[in-house]
Structure formats: structure tokens, C-alpha cells
Amino acid sequence: MKNFWQQYSRNKSAVFGLTILLALILLALLANVLFPADPFKLLGKPMEPPSTEFLLGTDSLGRSVASGIAHGARTSLLIGLVATSVAVLLGTVIGGLAGFHGGKVDNLLMRLTELFQTIPSFIFAVLLVAILSPSLKSVVIAIAVVSWPTVARLVRAEFLSLRKREFVQAAITMGMPSWKIILQQILPNALSPIIVSASLMIATAILLESGLSFLGLGDPNIMSWGFLIGSGRSILRTAWWVCTFPGIAILLTVMAINLVGEGLNDVLNPRLREKDE
Amino acid sequence: MNRLNYLLRRLLQAIPVLIAIVVLNFLLLQLADGDAVDVMAGEAGSATPEYLAQLRESFGLDQPWYTQLGHYMVNMAQLDLGYSFRQDAPVLDLILTRLVPTLLLMVSTLVLSATFGCLLGLFAAVGLNTWRDNLISIFALVSYATPLFWIALMFIVVFSIHLHWLPTSGMETIGAFYEGWDRVVDIAWHMILPVTTLSLFYLAAYTRLMRASMLEQRGMDYVMTAQAKGLPERVVTFRHILRNALLPVITLAGVQTGSMLGGSVLVESVFGWPGLGMLAYDALFSRDLNLLLGIFFTCACLVVIMNLCVDLLYTFLDPRIDLQ
């Protein structure tokens, strides 16, 4: 663990990303303490510019933008994390089965993966949410459904190469059941690339979520950054701050997560780093 | 001749994909509230009861699911995507009129982002770990992390509202009725912001790929041979490394088509660009699910076609590809 930190902290930009990310997580956790009122509550006059009372101004109805950003941080991080977890689970199962069994199973599952990669993902996500009607659950499902193929391909490739290794062959010869070999022998060795790609996927999931809620496909009862930007669109001419600040929040979050992901990659996949330099 | 055979074979391979997409469309239709005809006719009873009954019959909704799927596939094969009551026009006609603006947007974006992305990636790779490389990497990181729709709005604030340089929305000046070159200039003027917005995002991907690709090629044996022959570094970089490094960029162009169509939904809806994305946005708001499904199908077909083009292009660019 100490070794891990030592290596991680050698990458300055990764440390920078982690600092921003921790600050955002703190903001998300403290949203209810810092802004105890419901973020949908009308607190001031409409379209008040940033001031000491409303740090980042108010929107077209008089809701505090700062409060919206703090509560939106929760939504974005939560959806990013949950949707990515579902996608990673789905991708690992499908990719793992394909890579471990090979042959017909592999062929069939990879055709499915390719199909899902061919489909334009954002439009598919829009369609799914529109059909399932906008809610937290359908947004998570939509993001997970369009994100799993990347993991599946990665896991399949890892499983294919690990399966040929001696320790796995030994386990097969010993008569270990397949599920045990997959869970105890292969998966732990494939974990680091999965972690790296999952961390980068969280960033993509957050971008996707913001796009969906910008189009009005977010959960109507939950504050989110995309919703804030969408609601500020019509008053862009008079109140630039409503759109501007939530966008900066998205930008910082996605950038921070990408930096952390690259930092993790450097530590966990040292082979790739040497190739890159 | 070999190439023609190859293309035909790739075309045949695309057919199962298209069938799978049609089946997926059918499944999505089943997922929606109400039966397929309710979805097709839109809510709010804007269709006449006679038409609904006729539709139910033509779909055979009393039949088992596989018969229904059969009907659906026959309809789709005839490019009958249904009728949009909200827009009072056949879905196919609506899509066809919106296709050209979207293609215009996408092709411009593709050219702009690939060209500049390759240049930036090249500069970064040539000056590896210098301030230039770092600056380009930071730029790529930021533009990749920026939500498309947000940067679009920010461009409007700066360039349209404050500086009055560029129009905020639309494809042409309304009521100007330009003709000939004036019209071309007018459309180009309206294109600047949407194309720049879309390009910024995809530029990052090309830059990163090009940089990585250049670095990978530089470690190859043929480069060492070229250097050992005593060729100047400039010739090695541009004649040998660059040509090979460009190949993955073409693959990326194919892969990104789907994502770019998705991005165009956001960008077109912000800039009021009258393309497929804007149509999807309108369909979303009027809950015209059938129109949305039609757009989804069209976009998926566009991706398949684009991938075919990339495959074909590869056969010209990379002689190592086995046409058998």
C-alpha cells in the first residue's frame, strides 16, 4: 500500500486530479450541511447575479445555482459510480465467459458485443430513457447498457491470454470447477486493467448523464448539473452564470477522474508505461 | 476484381448486423407503454381511430410475437418506417430531408478534427516531453472533459451575444433567400460554431491516438533500418513513420461515427441546426417514439455504411490486408 502511494505520487498530474476529486466528493457529502434547503426551492429573486448571498447567482426561478451544483455533485458522482459498476459487472461476466470458454460461446458473445459497439451509443441511451421514462433507475440502466462492451472486450482479451498460462492449466488439470478457476485464478490477475478502465468509464458515464439530463431526460426529482445547464439555456442572454458554473463543475470532475485513471494506469500497468515512454 | 469481391463479402456480413438492429428496434417498441400502434400513432390521440384499427391489423397485433416481428421486418425492409402524426409526414421523408444538414456537419467535423488532431499529435510526438507536448496534452485532456452542449452554449455567449460575430442558430439567415455563392457563404457562416464545437471534442481523441501511434511506430524495426541507412530524421519521420501512424486514425474515424451522431443531437439542439439531431430532439419533446426509433435505425445504418467505407479505404491504403 505504501509502495502504491509512493508510485502514484510520482505522477504530479494524478495527484492534482485526486485532490480535485476528493474536494468534489467532500462537496457532495456535505451538500446537505452547506445547503440544507431543497435545491429545487425558490430562495431568491430570479436571475440574481453572483453575490455574497448567492455565491453563484440564481436561475430563472430563483433557485440557488451553488446549491444546485453541490447537490448535483451527489447525483453525478453517484450515477457515474453505480452505472459504471453495473457496466463493469455485465462486461466482466460476458467478456469472461467468452474468453474462458472460447469457441462458439466466444463467437456468439463477441458478435453481440460488436453489435452494441456499432449502435450509436448516445442516441441509444436517449431512446432507452425515453422509453423507460426518465428516472434515476432508467438513466443508470441506459448508461450501463451502452458502456459494457468496452469492458467485455478488455476482459475477454485478458481471459484468453491468462487461460493459456500454466497456473490456470494446472488448476484445470487438478479438476477445479470452472467457476472457481474464473473467480479465484483468472479474475484476480485480470483485475488491474479492469480497475483502470472502470475509473476512466466513470468519467464517460458522468458526461453521458449530463448530456441526458441536459436534454430533459434526467430524473425530474433529482438535481443534476445537466438539468441546471438546460434550465439556464433560455436565459443565456441575460444570466450567463446559470449555464457557466455547472459546466465548469462537469469539466473539473471529468478531468479529475481522467487524471486519476491515468495515474492508476501508470501504477497498475507498468508494462504499458514503459512502452509509452 | 478481388477488391469488388471483398466489398461484396463485407456487404453480406453487414446484413446480419442490420437485421439485429431491426430486431432491437422491435424489442424497444415492445418495451414502451401501450402496444406498438399506440407508440406509432403518438399519444394524445392525434391519429384517427380508423387508422389505428388499420395499423393494428397490418401489424397483426393479435398474432403471436414472431408473426409481429415478421411484419415489422417486412415493413422495415421496404423502408416503411411509419407515419409521424406530430409532424404530419412519413417518418422516412422527415429523416431524408434532415439527412443532408447532418451529413454536412459530420463530414466537416470529421475533416477538421482529423486534420488538426493528426497535426497536433504529430507535433506532440516529435517534441516528446517538451513544453509543446505538455501543452498539447493538456489541451487534449481539457477538450475531452468538456461537455459538448456546454461549450456550445459558451461559444454562443462569447461569439454571438457579446461579440456579435457569428449567428446563434439555424443553418441560413431567415428571410434572406440567398442564392448561389451567397447561400454557400451564408451556410458556411452558420456552420462555424457547430462544427468547431463538435470538432473540439473529437480533436482530443485524434490527437491522443496520433501521438501514441507515432510513438509506437517509432520503435519499429523498419525505422531503425531507415535510420541505419543514414536517412535524415525528417525523412524518417514524414516518409516512414507518419504514413504508418496514420492507419489507426482512419479506424478511429469509422468508430467515431456513432458517437458523432450522438454528439450532433446535443450540438444541433443547441444551435438549432435543422438535421437529424434536431429532429431527434423535437421527437423527444413531442414524445414521438416511432420517429425516434426511425432516427436511431437510420443512424445505425449510417455507422454500418461508414465502417464499410473505412474497410474499403483500408484496402487501398494498406496492401498487407488480405482480400481473400
From TrEMBL, chain A:
Pfam families in alphabetical order: BPD_transp_1, OppC_N
Record-linked Gene3D superfamilies: MetI-like
GO CC terms in record: plasma membrane
Species, as recorded: Thalassospira alkalitolerans
Main location: membrane
Subcellular location(s) of the protein: Cell membrane
Family designation: Belongs to the binding-protein-dependent transport system permease family.
Domain of life where this protein originates: Bacteria
UniProt keyword annotations, A-Z: Cell membrane, Membrane, Peptide transport, Protein transport, Transmembrane, Transmembrane helix, Transport
GO BP terms in the entry: peptide transport; protein transport; transmembrane transport
Protein name as catalogued: ABC transporter permease
Lineage: Bacteria, Pseudomonadati, Pseudomonadota, Alphaproteobacteria, Rhodospirillales
InterPro entries: BP-dependent_transpt_permease, MetI-like, MetI-like_sf, OppC_N
Keyword Cell membrane: yes
Positions in coiled-coil regions: none
Topology class, membrane: Multi-pass membrane protein
From TrEMBL, chain B:
Membrane topology label: Multi-pass membrane protein
Superkingdom as given in the UniProt entry: Bacteria
Chain ranges of the ABC transmembrane type-1 domain: 99-314
Any one Gene Ontology cellular component term annotated for this protein: plasma membrane
Alphabetical list of CDD domains matching this protein: TM_PBP2
PANTHER family per record: ABC TRANSPORTER PERMEASE PROTEIN, DIPEPTIDE TRANSPORT SYSTEM PERMEASE PROTEIN DPPB-RELATED
Gene3D superfamilies xref list: MetI-like
Localization: Cell membrane
Major location category of this protein: membrane
Protein name: ABC transporter permease
Residue stretches spanning the membrane: 12-32, 103-126, 138-167, 187-205, 245-271, 291-317
Pfam family, one: BPD_transp_1_N
GO terms under biological process: transmembrane transport
Similarity comment: family membership: Belongs to the binding-protein-dependent transport system permease family.
Keywords for this protein: Cell membrane, Membrane, Transmembrane, Transmembrane helix, Transport
